UniProtKB/TrEMBL annotation:
Name by which UniProt lists this protein: Zinc ribbon domain-containing protein
Highest taxon above the source species: Bacteria
All residue ranges annotated as the Putative regulatory protein FmdB zinc ribbon domain in the record: 1-46
Any Pfam family hit: Zn_ribbon_8
Amino acid sequence: MPLYEYKCKDCGKVTEFRSSMDNKAEMAGSLICEDCGSRSFSQVFGGIALTQGSSGGNDLPPDTGGGCCPGGMCNL
Ligand SMILES: [Zn+2]
């Protein structure tokens, strides 16, 4: 279960919580700062490695070799 960090926009206190992806938005919406009681948070992405491009990425360049062998070695 991933760990999320949210930083209070008012006092800067970082609050951590663990939640499933489905409950993340709900958890974030119910956060209250322990220090100042603020509900204004911004998510901190420092410790989480996000993977980009989960779909696609098959845009390979065309094969420049041509024919059956790269470099035309077939004609020897
Ligand atoms: Zn605060």
